[in-house]
Amino acid sequence: MERLIVLAACWLTLTPCFAFTLNNNVAASFEQDQVKVNVASHTCNNLGITNDELLSLAEEAGALYWNRVHTSRLEVVRGSVVSVDGVFQTGEICTNFPSSPCDINAAMAVSSDILISCNTASNNYSNSPSVLGVTLPNNVTGQTIRGALILVNDAADNSFKDLGRGEKIAVLAHEIGHAVGLGHSNFDRNLMYYQSVATRETLGPDDVDGTTLWRLWFHWPHSRPRLSQPLRR
Q1: At CA 35, angle to CA 229 and CA 200, rounded to 5?
Q2: What distance separates the 2 farthest-apart alpha carbons in the chain?
Q3: What does the chain look like in DSSP terms, one character per residue?
Q4: pTM (two decimals)
Q5: CATH number for the domain whose boundaries are 7-210
Q6: How far, in Å, CA of 51 to CA of 44, rounded?
Q7: Taking the CB of residue 26, how many other CB atoms lie within 10 A of it?
């Protein structure tokens, strides 16, 4: 299991902030073009949403955002509700919070594809209910992502449940972007902008360029540069 450096960026929150999103520093990507999004089967007590509803939102996030990039081979598809260990609901994604870089909690490594889990460990979200989620490709071999984990804040006073359907889809689409290896953009017209934008409905130029180049770099690894900063135009 690799020790991944935390990229300086921002957690998705309802208000502008400066923090960081967990991500990889080795220009890693999924090997397969089709990546499934699964949802953990345990009950999300405070999100105001069922597992099947969360899975449907994730499916729409792929269909409405990432699957519309015609220059990319990446296709985000609906997986299933899967049974996982209770640590995904209560555990910390890094064993050394609040220090950086992240020492990955091996018990929460995702075996394949992307797993979304509601999670109640407040340290994952800087002890703030306004932090909606955190994402980490936490099963990486060399430059290949085997599995990535998206945790949605299941605090009693969380903000996710108060979002409209479109906003929830955009939040999950942003986190899926991190799960497949993308960092943040510095320009607010992009889904991967480092602050949340409530009216987000489409991908921006950086999002399209990022996912296109990321897939090209994987298929031609001899010419793929090592990225450690968010993509910029």
Answers
A1: 60
A2: 48
A3: ---PPPEEE--EESS---EEE---SS--EESSSEEEEEEE-S--SSSS--HHHHHHHHHHHHHHTGGG-TT---EEEEEEEE---THHHH--SBTTTTSSS--B-GGG--SSEEEEEEE--GGGGTT-TTEEEEEEEEEEETTEEEEEEEEEE--TT-SGGGS-HHHHHHHHHHHHHHHTT---BSSTTSTTBSS--TT--S--HHHHHHHHHHHHHHHSGGG-----S----
A4: 0.82
A5: 3.40.390.10
A6: 8
A7: 18
Note whether 6 and 23 are within 8 A (CB): yes
pLDDT, tens digit, 9 for 90 and up, residues 129-173: 888 899 999 999 988 999 999 999 999 988 888 889 999 999 999
Q: How far apart are CA 132 and CA 1, in angstroms?
A: 26
**Nearest Cα residue to 180 out of 152, 218, 232, 229:** 218
Please measure the distance between the N-terminal and C-terminal CA atoms of the chain and give it in whole angstroms. 32
What six digits make up the tokens of 136? 């980490």
Q: Which two tokens stand for residue 64?
A: 């409405």
Q: Which residues pair with 39 in a beta bridge?
A: 81, 116
